[in-house]
Amino acid sequence: MKFIEPTWNCILQDVKRLNVGMQKSFNFFEEGSGAQSILSLSEDQIVNIIQKNKHYLKLLLTEAGIHNYSKAIKHIPKHKIFGSGSGDFDLVIYGPTYPFELISFEFKRIKVEALDYSSDKVNKISGIETLFYQLEERVKMGFHAVYGIIIIHSDLRERRTANTILRSHTVETNEMLFYEINSLKSFPTEAGLILIKYEQPTGKDSAINFKVGRVKFAEKLQQNDETREKFQNYLNLSNFA
Known about the structure:
Order of helices and strands: EHHEHEEEHEHEEH
Distance between the termini: 43 Å
Largest sheet: 8 strands, mixed
Radius of gyration: 19 Å
Helix content: 25-40%
Number of helices: 6
Shape: globular
């Protein structure tokens, strides 16, 4: 299956605190210098941020065609559902009405660091194939739909282009990422694929670019009744915990 770059929908954040009685002038395009690199965040921490931020989560689910749901639960241990097994389900969306349709979202992070105006350092591209094998497993488990999410996690403070809001990785990095995605044969055709750009454009703590692009819709699958019941039991136990 040949993937092409999607249309991006974005939430761009850049703020400046104003203190009464102090300097009134400010510049939203100021680079800043106080922020720690967001690359210090782990993949799990980014998933937590997305799940807790209602605007981020809504943008992601809208790209997946989900407009109503009852629960969005992250990091469900596999052994809590099936009684055995390692690892967890990154994010499971329960449909709006019972019996719930279950949609599985599995995430994989690629780290990008801008070295200067025209070059990037890219890590963990090999993890894409691991993600695709996870999606195949989720399809076999009997979810209503399965999505893979590739997070392009970027520190762009050294990019130094004029437009800080639209700052991103280079065209060469973009071409390399899609070459790697398209070179793998392990993507299950039933699954959907969404890309997220979680970017640090400047050295200000407040500046974050969150961009979501759907590459492919997931197919609606015949949900396994036993799997649905096991996740329902987990939900019931969680509500009483």
